[in-house]
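Note to self: the last two entries modelled the partners one at a time, which told us nothing about the interface. This time every component goes in together.
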Amino acid sequence: MSNSEQTSEHLHPHAHAKHHHGSAALYVRTLVALLILTAITVGASYIDFGAGNVVIALFIATIKATIVALFFMHLRWDKPVNAVIACAGFLFLGIFLMFDFIDFGSRDGLRPVNWDGKLPIETVAPATSGAAPAAEKK
Amino acid sequence: MENAIKSQTRIADRPRPKINYLNATHGIWSWMSTVDHKRIGVMYLVGVLGAFFVGGMFALLVRLTLLTHDHMLFGRLLLTADAYNRVFTLHGVIMVFLFIIPSVPAALGNFVLPLMLGAKDVAFPRLNLASFYLWCTGAILAVVGMIFGAIDTGWTFYTPYSTTTNGTVTLMTMAVFILGFSSIFTGINFVATVHKLRAPGMGWFDMPLFVWGIYSTAIIQVLATPVLGITVVLLMLERVFSIGIFDPKLGGDPVLFQHFFWFYSHPAVYIMILPGMAIISELIPTFSRKTMFGYRAVAYSSVSLALLSFIVWGHHMFVAGQSQLATVIFSALTFLVAIPSGVKMFNWLGTMYKGNISLETPMLYAISFLLLFAIGGLTGIFLGTLSVDVHLTDTYFVVAHFHYVMMGGTVIAFIGGIHYWWPKMTGRMYSEKWGRIACTLIFIGFNMTFLTQFILGSRGMPRRYYNYLEQYQPLHAFSTVGSWVIGLGMFMTAAYLLASLRKPMDAPDNPWGGTTLEWTTSSPPIEHNFEEQPVLTKAPYDYRPETVAH
Amino acid sequence: MEQQFDTSKIGMWLFLATEVLLFGGLFVGFGLMQARYPQEFIEAHEHLQRPLGALNTVVLLISSFTMVMGVLSAQRGDKKKVVMFLVLTILCACIFLGVKYFEYSHKFEEGLLPPRWYHAQSTDTVRDAAGNVSHGYGTFFAFYFMMTGLHGIHILVGIFLLSWIAVRAHRGEFSKAYYTPVDLVGLYWHLVDLIWIYLFPLFYLIK
Amino acid sequence: MEWLRAWMLPPQGSDFAAEVDTVYMWLFWLSVVLFLGIAYAAIYFSWRYRYKPGRVTPHQTHNTMLEIVWSAGPLLLCVGIFFWGLNGWMKYSVAPGESMEIQITAKKWLWSFEYPDGTRTANEIHVKLNKPVRFVMTSEDVLHDFFVPDMRVKADIVPGRYTEVWFTPTVLGVHHVTCAEYCGKGHSDMQAKLVVDNEADFAKFMETGGTEWEDYKTKPAEWGKLQYERKGCSTCHSIDGSLTKGGGPSWKGIWGKMETLNNGQQVLVDEPYVRESMMVPAAKIVKGYEPIMPTFQGLLRETEIQGLEAFIKSLGNDPNGGPPAPTVLALPPPKPKDQAQAQ
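The predicted structure of the combined assembly is written out below.
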C-alpha cells in the first residue's frame, strides 16, 4: 500500500495533474448553492417550527458545511484518508456532545438551585465570600 | 548470568562509521537548530528526565511529610498544610504534563519511530523541533509559575476551587495549554509519518508493534488534546473575566468542567499507557527470541484501546454529581477496556511460552511491567464496579491504582525502553549487573510504596490529605520507606547510565538480536539513519533460523 | 513532490481536525448552557442583528470562493490571478472583521456582556423576586464573545497567512508543480468559513 | 477470612457495608487468582524457557481460537461484575420514602447539618439506629465530598446544586465523617462525627436543639437573630422600621411600646405579649394590621422563643440593632454534647 503511495510518482509521471478537478464554473455553481442555502436558512428563521427550528438550522448548516468540504476543500477528489480524518474530528466531537447531553438530559434539574427563578443566590447562601462579583448586587 | 549478551542472532558487525548523528555537527547551536529526529528525541529525553527528577523529588517530599503523623522530622516541621498542597499539586502537574505524556512518544518515539519505519526522518521535521520548543516554553512557564507562588489546586484544576484560590493558576494553565499543543504537533507528525514514510515493502501489518502503539497514541493526541486546550482557556477566562461557565455563583456548572477535563484527561491516560505497552511488545519477542504471538490482535488492541478511551471518561465522576443514567452507561463502557488490555497481557505471555528467554535488564523491566500492570489493571475492575467505587473513589486506593498503571506500567516500560535502545542512542553498553540490581530495587520499592496504599484507601483514607488519622500511621511509614528504595534504584540507574557515557563506544549494531529495522543501522545511527533505503523483506519478530540467516 | 504534497495535506487535515475539536469544546458548552437556560438564550439572541450576521455569512462564503479560485489559479500556474484572488480574499476578511467591530461595539454599548458585567436588563423576563435577571443572559453573551472571538482570531491569523502567501506568489515562488502552501492555507481558510457556517445559525437564527 | 476483610476495610456501619464488602472481597480473591496466574506464567516461562544457545523457538504467529477465548472470557466476567456492582449501586441511589432528611451545607472547612425541625449542628450529626436517613447536600463555596467510610457512602457536594446520599445505620456509636474532595488548606481537617443513637438518646438530643445553641447561650440576641432569619419572621417583619411585603409590624423599637389593638384596648409589648403573639397570633391584633400571622406553636423551641425575644428587645433599645440589651435568661442549660459522649 505504502509502496504504491511512494512510487506513485514514478508510475504516473503526470500525477500532479490529478489535482485539477475543479473548474471556475463548478466553483461558481458551488457558491451560488451556498448563497441560496443561506437565504433559505435566514428565511426559515422567521417562521416558527417549534422544536424543529434547531433541527432545520443545523441540518441546512450541515449541508452547507458538506458542500464546502467536498468542493472547496477538494475532499470529493482527495485521498480518502483526508476525508477519514475530517470525519473523525466530527465523530469524536459527536461523542463528546452525546455523552454530555446524556448527563445533562437525565439530571433532575439543570438550573442552579440557588437561582431557581425566584431567589437570588445571596438569599440562600449568604455572605460566602467578599469576592462575590458585582453582577449579583445589581 | 554474567554472560549478559547472548548473541546467537546478532548480525555481524560492520566497522562503526566515524560520523554519526552525534558528532556530525558540533556546538550547541547545531543541536538547538537541528531538525534531526534523533537529536530532537535525545533533547526531549534529557528534558523529560529533568522533569522526572523534579517531579520525583516532590514525590519523595510528599512521602516524607506523611512519614509521621505530626509531619515532624528531627524536631522540625517538614511542610505546612499549604506547602503540602502545593507540593503534591506540582508533583502531579509535572509528572503528568511535563514527564509522562511526552516521555515515551516524544523522547523514545521520536528517536525510534522513523528508524523502525526505515525513514530518513519524521514527516515534518521542523514541526518536530517546534514541538520541542513548545515543550520548553511550557516547562519554563511552569517553573516561573512555581517560583511566583505555585498552585494548590491538584493537577485536576477542579472548579470552583481553581477559579477562586490564590496562586499562579493562570500561568500554570497557560503552561498546560502550550504543552498540549506540543503534544498535538508530535501526534500530527507521527500519524503523517506512519501513513506516508513506511519503507518500501512495509505494509500496515509489517510495522513493529511499537509503531502501532505510538500511532494509536498519536490519534488520541490529535483528537483529545484540543479539548484540553479549550478547557484550560475557559478556566483562564473564568479566572480573569468571570465568564460564568464553571462558576456556580455566576450560573455556571462545576461538573461541566469535569466533563471537559476528563474528555481529555481520560484519553490522556492512554496517551501515557499505550506507548508503555508498545515498548513491552518490542521487549518480549526480542528477549524471548520468538515471534510475537497474536501480532494482529495486539495491534488491533492498541487501536481499540485508543478509541475506547474516548467513551469512558465519566468513570472519574461516579460520585461527582453526574446523572445516574450517565454513571451507569460509563460504568458499563469502562469494563470494555478490560478486554483489549487482557488480550495484550495474554499475548505477551503467549509469546514467552516456549521462547528462549534471557533476562537482561530490559527484559527484567518487561516482566516487572507484566506483574505491576496486572495489579494496576485488576484493581481498575474494583473501581469500575459501581457499588465498590462509591467507597473507594477519592481515596488512596485510586492513588495506588493509577500509580500502578502510570508508574508501574508506563515508567517501568519507559526505563526498560531506555535500556533497550540505550546502545542504539549512545553507542555504548551500560553495566548489566548494576542494571539488574537497580531494576530489582525499583520493583521492590514500588510495591512497598503502593501496595500499602491500596490498604490505606480501602480502609477509608481520602487522597490529598495532609493530616491523617493516627491509625494509618504504620502503613504510611512503610509506604514512605518504600519510596526511598525507589529513589535509591532511580539514582543508581542514573549513575550507571551516565557512567557508561564516559566509556568509548562499544555497542554492537544489534546487541539484543532485535528484528526491527532500527537494529540494521549502525549504533549510533548515521545522520540520515540508513546508508541506503532499507527494503522490508520479512515481517518483524521473525526468528525462524532461515529468515534470521537472511 | 507528489509524496510531499500528500504528506503535507494529511498533516493539514490532522490540524484541521484538532481545530474542529477546539471549537467543538465551545459548541458543547454552548449546547449544554442552552439546555440549562432555554428561555434566556432565546431572548438574548434577539439582541443580535440578524442582517449583519447574514451579511457576514455571505462575505465569508464569497471569500471561500475567491480562495478556491486562487488555489485553482495556482494549480494552473497563473501567478497574476493567484495574487488577485488572494487579495480579494483578504479584502473579504477585512470586511468581515469590520462588520464584527460594529457588532461588538453595539454589544458593549448595550451592556450585552458576560454575566459579571451584563447590564442590559430592560426586556429580560427571567428574573427572581427581587428583579435580578438570570445569569443565563450573560452566559449567552459569554459564549457569543468567546466563540466569535476565537473565530475572529482565526480570521486574523488567516489574513496574516494569506498576505504571506500572496507575497510569495507575487515573488513567483509557486508553480504548477509546487503550490502546496496555497493549497494548505486554502484548506485553513475554508475551515474558518465552515465554522462560521455553524456559528451563524446557532447564535443569530435559532429560536 | 473475616480477619482479612477487617484488616482491609473499615467496620461495617450500615447495611450497604455488608453488600459492598462482599463484592470487594470477591473481586479481591478474583484478582489474587488472576494475578497469581499471570505471575506464575511470567516467572515459570522465564525459568522453564531460559536462554540456551542454539535453541530454536517455534514460529507461533497466532491462534484465533485462543484470542476469542481470552477476549470472550474476560468480557463475560466483566458483564457479570458490572451487573453485580450495578445492583448494589441502585439501592444506594434511591432513598426510601420514610427516610429522615438532614440538610448538609458544607463550606471551607465546616460541616453544618440541619434537621427537619430546624435543629442545627456543626461537625456533629446524630441519627437514629436502624432508621434510614437521607442527606441533601449543597456547598457554599467549592466542591466537598461527604464520605462516611463505615457506611460505605460517598457523594460530592456541589455548589449551586443539591446532591443526595442515604444509608441505614446499623451500629450504635460514633462513626467518622470526612471530606473526600480536595477543598484547600483545611481539607484534611474537615471532619465530623456521626453519632448513631437509640430512640431515647436521639429524642434527648433533639429536645435540646442540637449543638448550635451551646454556642449561642451567652449571646441570646444573636441566637434570636438567627431564628428571625431561619424561621421566616423576616418575610413579614422588618427590623429597620420599613413595611415588608408580608405586611407585619416592624420590630424596630417595638419592645416596651404601648400599642392600640383593633378592639380599642391598649397593650404593652413585653415578654408575655410577644410570646402570646407567636403562639396565638390572632388573640390581640394591633390596629391597622390584618390577622394573617400563622401560629408558631410547636415550631419554636423555648430556647428559640427566648432568643427571639432577646433579639426584639435589642432592637427596641438601639434603632441600628446594635449590641443586645443585657438579658438574663433562666433556661435549663441543654447539654447535647455530654449526651453524645454518653454513647
